Records
---
Amino acid sequence: MTNDAMRAQMATGQGFVAALDQSGGSTPKALRLYGIEEDAYSSEDEMFDLIHDMRTRIATAPAFTGEKVIGAILFEMTMDREIGGKPSAKYLWEERRVVPFLKIDKGLEAEENGVQLMKPIPGLSDLLDRAVAHGIFGTKERSVISAANAEGIEAIVAQQFELGQEVLAKGLVPILEPEVTISIPDKAEAEDMLLASIQRHLDTLDQPVMLKLSLPTKANLYAPLIAHPKVLRVVALSGGYARDEANAKLAENHGMIASFSRALTEGLSAQQSDEAFNATIAATIDGIYAASIT
């Protein structure tokens, strides 16, 4: 069964997860880094057409296969569109052997107790049903920790696991992402609190989840999570580190694999020839892959 093959790849596959899920708010920045200024489009539709072109170019590059890219996180609009003449999720799995995930969060609430919880997700049940119909394997949901505040961190983990249970109930595997902001002064303390809270909540699960966490201040801090029977995989976000630094930090964390977004697209531009683009993405994939298999 396809789902079993996807699950096996996510559990033991050598490689990393590509994050191709920039949403409305972060799309202009992603396009600007890709060499497309805001005066190049005059509507949201045109903007999303351009970002879809970028994602298509990445997903169809010769190096973008399950050999090194074991999964990819898609934005909802990407799921609803086609790549290579097929619905995006089906293209990724059937043509590239890349396991498709869907970003489901709708942004963040205002900061309270040092954290930003996820906003409510209207129509969640229908969205998850559509994801299943598209052949999506799992979801991703992000919230943010900006201080070592025990009350806030407990609230953020509780919300992540509550949403995770809804996702599991639909037969999908959630990637829970309580991101710790990399620039905060008490990052290490926040990470210790986060680890303890996640461990408590994992004991309440009857099915495995995935975790997407900031690269920790203390190498291998999350080793207990990587080894936990209720964790399918622990992936790392680049969190604003430049790619070389993110790769170096990732390589220190054994068993943790990348799920980079900006660090994946660093150095790519709309102006590159296909030859130059494909060579750049291939080198990027090789570097992130090498850091992910340590």
---
Amino acid sequence: MIIAVDFDGVLHFGEYPSIGTPSIEAKKALAELKKSGHYIIIWTCRNGDLLLSAINWLVEHGFPFDRVNDQEPKNAAIYGDNSRKVYADVYIDDRNAGGLASWDNILNYIAYLESQK
């Protein structure tokens, strides 16, 4: 599955444009998802120097990901472009209706979706 994960308010505890303390639960969950073969796209409104800072922070703190604000290449080929809105099977964002679920609930939901294939 392709999983798009928001940066601010999901992977760290901080107020935009600052970057705060890493969420250990998020890091563990992303590592588990990556190990299970999922494709992880960090999906953020950051750009320019703020985006570069976020990418450097992700690498520095060992968060696994495949792309940032960029389509998985097969989908870019299918749809003929690389729009700003990335295609994903699941979007994880603190601005969801109802807020950000616990990482245990997120992992269980993704496992459920996988079992339905």
---
Amino acid sequence: MSRIGKKPIPLPSGVKVQIGEQLQVTGPKGSLTVPIPPGIKIEQKDGKLELLRDSDQHAALHGLTRALAANAVQGVSTGFTRELDIVGIGYRADIKGKVATFTLGYSHPIEVLLPEGVEMRVDKVAGSPIQNLQVRLVLTGRDRQLLGQVAANIRALRKPDPYKNKGVRYTGEALRKKVGKTGAGAK
């Protein structure tokens, strides 16, 4: 039996679900749909969603569907947040509407169009324990998968350099600094 699949999903107040071909979850932050694979049934009892499967043949999709449904419920009620840090002298980020502009040490600024449902806020950080930290990006949205993909795309613009630790990283990401060349002229 799937440990994750058999856990019920509590429904917060203000969240409504419609069960059909797909699970439609509506809340204060918007609405999301979750596909229901064949062999999986969703029942609503006492303010909770319970997922049941027909047989052990559908075990792999049982936990997956429950996790997707739980993410949809949390996304439309409270939403998700992902934070990134931009580290480096002269590295900046600005946002105007749905277009984020990054200056990351290249010869040109990089513009990123944020998809619908993802919001970005730019915070300036002063006196941070991380050297050269100037900008913190806070991404918020209701769709966890989309939010994580946007955060990964922004991080890929300038991955953290292992020698100088400059670049875009997730907040709290542990980096191992490598030692550069030592004694290049010594024999």
---
Amino acid sequence: MFLRPCNRYLVVEPIEEDQLEDNPRILLPDDYKQSNPFGIGRIVGRATDCSVEAFEGEIITFSSNMLEKISINGENFSLLLENYVLGILSEIE
């Protein structure tokens, strides 16, 4: 199933970062996950009325608490309003 976003939304595939150090100084449960206020993700769809110049396949950074997760017929989608895109990651300037 494909979700075509509307109203300046982007469909984002979140990318998990390994944030724990190899040798932590504090013992943590195996399922512990440190929360980061920022996330990164790959754009997989965008509304036609988006003004941000980020396109499908590009990696963006965003405020992670603004990522909206929805489930439709058993499929999960992550949506982000274009206002919450903080930057586009690339290898060159």
